[in-house]
């Protein structure tokens, strides 16, 4: 990787992008470099560190049994979320499955809200009623947070449908993994997206394993960027925040002019599928360590920073500590927050909850509609 | 535009249930630009059962969407559109096919408001034919009323006549929650006199309120959809024998109108429930339990009698199909049983 090509007096730094693989597209349509600045590099570094520290904190909390149920961590994949944040706007919709904490963070929830939610506190993003798999934020067009593999794909296609229906100059990023890429509903949805020219970006986070099943054992065709058939596709290095960013900018333009596109981002998750999966029965520890050493997305940005003397090791360490501190404070606050009051058990079932009957465990404990 | 509505006398018109649903959809699509109809053959084909006839010609392809045969895909797409703020009317050619999409009705739509602690909502209507038709055999004849009525977060409606169809469908479209709207193919062709006020573009029926179709004092018959017709026929026959039946048309299956049922029991002290669906865990079973759990139990003079579909996949042969689902004579027999 060549980190430095030029450095103008405006402190703009040019970064050479890795090569792309394309399907029904011409390579020369895609950029070869990306431009960044010192400030931007430091911002990406800090934000990705915050994501990383947050995920690690959740791992610790789970082991302390302060987080329960399912926990799917995304450490190792931070550059994808940073890249989507940089390449799209809050008027563009994002939807994903259950590996959603970092997206929640980038779409406006604070570390405290996110951690408190997983710790089942009233101060959590969804009042403790959703948990790790169910974050949402309408104000920034983040639509979750879904537990059923593949369900988010037609849902996201519907968001794109609505954007086009309402003539918005915006797109929807529909995120799913290599495992979900075999779901029939992907092909049902993508077919309609292509027929109706919907502004849908089908974004495959290919971390090489669907739970414990490698892509070779699950997919007859592992070139996921080609799985859209007549729909154009691009394969990129998901661990390169710049390539993610630039590809999404390209994709947005494509979607608004022509219709859907498939993007496959090669990446790697350090944790197993979830906390119940050690992640070393279907891959070796050596492989995981090798990924950390040679392909870590935060180290990639760190090296650019150091190479271009944007900051030194000591300054970066300070940023690390600031990020860690922010997470630590969030965790300590969440620990003392109250759990949701028992009255929250029966709220939000309906939009107009007061007009509905909600049975309790015993009939006598039921909530009656206001009118009765 | 109701060119097929026949004016009988001033203040009334005659229309079929099909026309009632068609006119309700047309008015809602006209009223709110965010409302659209989506499903298989709803547009250029004029509807598989002609329920959406004329809508494509009137509103065009931006409001009436023909989909490929992909229930999971287009149902999920519609729920997503509703999450963004549009108001889809999703037509399932029959609810049998909706089983391919049921994950989106339940997990993507019904539970969303709760999981998101009120952050997201889906104002969406899932409508289509439910229950038996005629000789369409096992895979095309199931009643799904019980399945959907169990789910918190869903509203489940089932109209009988034109009044119900118009008022409930319009209320469903305007409701901010996801609504399952169970129609009946046999009822599509039935014509009813409809007073002018029912044709009004803002005619709405309250959700959660049953209708007493016929007042009586000896037995309460609780039912919905096509079985209302057979219950009314049974009640007319029983009247000739001096037995007075009160027929309650539920209209809404979820939330169930407990009060109307309880008040009726206080009057008649005997109950017969009638449904086309299978008995186990059915609507009748729920009504029995509701009565059992409330003070209505102490007003009963006899155990409740349920009339349900037979516990079998629906046979094709006409004579066997006739034995599969309740008819008026079964309801007459049930009433006499409860009076014994």
Automatic annotation (TrEMBL), chain A:
* Role description: The pyruvate dehydrogenase complex catalyzes the overall conversion of pyruvate to acetyl-CoA and CO(2).
Q: Has keyword Oxidoreductase?
A: yes
Q: What is the protein name for this chain?
A: Pyruvate dehydrogenase E1 component subunit alpha
Q: Which cofactor does it need?
A: thiamine diphosphate
Q: Which organism is it from?
A: Paramecium octaurelia
NCBIfam families from the xrefs? PDH_E1_alph_y
Classification from the root reads: Eukaryota, Sar, Alveolata, Ciliophora, Intramacronucleata
Which CDD domains does the UniProt entry name for this protein?
TPP_E1_PDC_ADC_BCADC
Top-level taxon of the source organism = Eukaryota
Keywords from UniProt, A to Z, are: Oxidoreductase, Pyruvate, Thiamine pyrophosphate
Instruction: Tell me what reaction this enzyme catalyses.
Output: N(6)-[(R)-lipoyl]-L-lysyl-[protein] + pyruvate + H(+) = N(6)-[(R)-S(8)-acetyldihydrolipoyl]-L-lysyl-[protein] + CO2
Enumerate the spans annotated as Dehydrogenase E1 component domain: 47-340
Question: What broad class of enzyme is this?
Answer: oxidoreductase
Pfam families for the chain: E1_dh
Q: Does the keyword Oxidoreductase apply?
A: yes
From TrEMBL, chain B:
What is the recorded name of this protein? Pyruvate dehydrogenase E1 component subunit beta
Species: Paramecium octaurelia
What UniProt keywords apply to this chain's record, in alphabetical order? Answer: Oxidoreductase, Pyruvate, Thiamine pyrophosphate
The biological processes this protein is annotated with in GO are:
pyruvate decarboxylation to acetyl-CoA
Biological role:
The pyruvate dehydrogenase complex catalyzes the overall conversion of pyruvate to acetyl-CoA and CO2.
| Cofactor(s) the protein requires to work | thiamine diphosphate
Alphabetical list of Pfam families matching this protein: Transket_pyr, Transketolase_C
What InterPro entries does the record point to?
Answer: PDHB_mito-type, Transketolase-like_Pyr-bd, Transketolase_C
Q: Listed GO molecular functions?
A: pyruvate dehydrogenase (acetyl-transferring) activity
Quickly give the catalysed reaction: N(6)-[(R)-lipoyl]-L-lysyl-[protein] + pyruvate + H(+) = N(6)-[(R)-S(8)-acetyldihydrolipoyl]-L-lysyl-[protein] + CO2
Q: SMART domains per the record?
A: Transket_pyr
Superkingdom of this protein's organism: Eukaryota
Q: Which residues form a coiled coil?
A: none
Residue intervals of the Transketolase-like pyrimidine-binding domain? 15-190
What does the record give as EC number? 1.2.4.1
């Amino acid at each position: 990787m060549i980190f430095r090509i030029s450095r103008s007096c405006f402190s703009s730094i040019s970064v050479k992008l890795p090569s792309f693989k394309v399907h029904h597209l011409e390579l020369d349509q895609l950029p070869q470099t990306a431009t960044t600045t010192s400030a931007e590099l430091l911002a990406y570094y800090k934000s990705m560190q915050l994501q990383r520290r947050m995920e690690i904190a959740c791992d610790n909390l789970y082991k302390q049994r302060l987080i329960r149920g399912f926990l799917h961590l995304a450490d190792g994949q931070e550059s994808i979320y940073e890249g989507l944040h940089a390449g799209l706007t809050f008027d563009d919709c994002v939807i994903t499955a259950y590996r959603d904490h970092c997206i929640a963070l980038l779409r406006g929830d604070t570390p405290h809200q996110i951690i408190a939610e997983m710790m089942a506190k009233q101060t959590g993003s969804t009042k403790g009623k959703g948990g790790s798999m169910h974050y949402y934020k309408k104000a920034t067009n983040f639509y979750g947070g879904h537990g059923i593999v593949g369900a988010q794909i037609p849902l996201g296609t519907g968001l794109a449908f609505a954007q086009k229906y309402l003539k918005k100059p915006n797109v929807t990023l529909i995120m799913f993994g290599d495992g979900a890429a075999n779901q029939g509903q992907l092909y049902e949805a993508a077919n309609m997206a292509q027929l109706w020219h919907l502004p849908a970006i089908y974004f495959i986070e290919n971390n090489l394993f669907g739970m414990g099943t490698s892509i070779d054992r699950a997919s007859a065709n592992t070139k996921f960027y080609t799985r859209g058939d007549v729909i154009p596709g691009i394969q990129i290095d998901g661990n390169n925040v710049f390539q993610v960013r630039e590809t999404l900018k390209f994709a947005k333009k494509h979607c608004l002019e022509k219709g859907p596109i498939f993007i496959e981002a090669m990446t790697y998750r350090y944790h197993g599928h979830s906390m119940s999966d050690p992640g070393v029965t279907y891959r070796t520890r050596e492989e995981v360590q090798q990924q950390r050493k040679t392909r870590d997305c935060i180290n990639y940005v760190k090296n650019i920073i150091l190479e271009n003397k944007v900051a030194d090791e000591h300054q970066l360490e300070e940023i690390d500590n600031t990020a860690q501190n922010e997470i630590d404070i969030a965790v300590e606050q969440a620990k003392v927050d109250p759990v949701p009051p028992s009255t929250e058990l029966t709220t939000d079932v309906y939009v107009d909850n007061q007009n509905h009957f909600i049975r309790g465990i015993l009939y006598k404990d039921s909530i009656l509609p206001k009118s009765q | 535009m109701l060119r097929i509505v026949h004016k009988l006398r001033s203040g009334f018109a005659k229309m079929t249930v099909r026309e009632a649903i068609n006119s309700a959809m047309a008015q809602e699509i006209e009223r709110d630009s965010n409302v659209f109809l989506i499903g298989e053959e709803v547009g250029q084909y004029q509807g598989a059962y002609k329920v959406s006839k004329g809508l494509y010609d009137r509103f065009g392809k931006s409001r009436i969407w023909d989909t490929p045969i992909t229930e999971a895909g287009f149902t999920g797409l519609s729920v997503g559109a509703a999450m963004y703020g549009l108001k889809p009317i999703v037509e399932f050619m029959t609810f049998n096919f909706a089983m391919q999409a049921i994950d989106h009705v339940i997990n993507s739509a019904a539970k969303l408001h709760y999981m998101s602690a009120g952050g997201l909502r889906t104002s969406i209507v899932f409508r289509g034919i439910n229950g038996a038709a005629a000789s369409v055999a096992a895979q095309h004849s199931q009643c799904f009323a019980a399945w959907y009525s169990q789910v918190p977060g869903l509203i489940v409606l089932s109209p009988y006549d034109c009044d119900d169809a118009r008022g409930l469908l319009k209320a469903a479209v305007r409701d901010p929650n996801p609504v399952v709207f169970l129609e009946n193919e046999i009822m599509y062709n039935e014509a009813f006199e409809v007073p002018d006020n029912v044709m009004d573009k803002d005619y709405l029926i309250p959700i959660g309120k049953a209708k007493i179709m016929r007042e009586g004092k000896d037995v309460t018959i609780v039912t919905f959809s096509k079985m209302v017709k057979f219950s009314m026929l049974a009640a007319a026959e029983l009247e000739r024998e001096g037995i007075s039946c009160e027929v309650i048309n539920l209209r809404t299956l979820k939330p169930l109108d407990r009060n109307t049922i309880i008040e009726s029991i206080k009057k008649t002290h005997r109950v017969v429930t009638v449904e086309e669906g299978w008995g186990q865990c059915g609507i009748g079973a729920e009504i029995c339990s509701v009565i059992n759990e409330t003070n209505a139990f102490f007003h009963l003079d006899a155990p409740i009698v349920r009339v349900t579909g037979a516990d079998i996949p629906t046979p094709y042969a006409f004579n066997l199909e006739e034995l599969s689902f309740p008819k008026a004579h079964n309801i007459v027999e049930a009433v006499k049983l409860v009076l014994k």
